[in-house]
Amino acid sequence: MDALAKILESAAQGGFPPADGGLTVLPQPSPRDAGVLALTGHTVVFADVPPEWVRRRVPPDDLGAPMGPPFLGALCDRTGREAGGIDVLLVLPPGTGPAAQREELREMRNPAGMSGPAHPRIADALAHRSQVRVWTTAGGGTLVTGTGVAGRWEVAVEVEAAARGAGLGRALAAAARTLVPPHEALWAQVAPGNAASLRAFLAAGFVPVGAEVLLRPGGGGAGTAG
């Protein structure tokens, strides 16, 4: 298990690095995954850049600097990537969460080989996760699971506009617990402004851990900035 996976596993169980304003710099857990993880009073940068390069650009007394535009812009230039949005990172620890029914979920066969344009939620999962599986409901819901950063199991849900407000998002988030290995923590990334999605995941038993921004390949940077 790599260092980032250990930090995530500990956080899923309620154990966090010291809230001392510290900064941990780790190599990428895979060529695909790079980013910044902000926990309470501690930040983890996981990218293939020298630790001293990071520390020169992060004032030691500014806890928000690693998530700020100046540092993220420099990190993108250095790595040749582009920053995604800053998400709230939530987790459902193993063995927790309400019971959920699965009967209404219909699994999509071979989502990676689907013809025509993919649903944006599915397309994003196929680009940034492995072992992607997709389920839909007759009521207008989509549920996607897969392994993402450091091999963690992740879930995303989408509810069509006409079906919102009836608890379907919460039901889908809860159902995901039954669709991944029971001994694994289940993670979700939600945009801070998406209050409806945040409420759905919280109601399904997920708890906030921190904030995260991922760096996507293809930012067009030179990858050599000092």
From TrEMBL:
Alphabetically ordered keywords of this record: Transferase
Domain of life: Bacteria
GO molecular function terms listed in the Swiss-Prot or TrEMBL record: acyltransferase activity, transferring groups other than amino-acyl groups
Transmembrane spans: none
Domain N-acetyltransferase span(s) in chain numbering: 90-226
Record's protein name: GCN5 family acetyltransferase
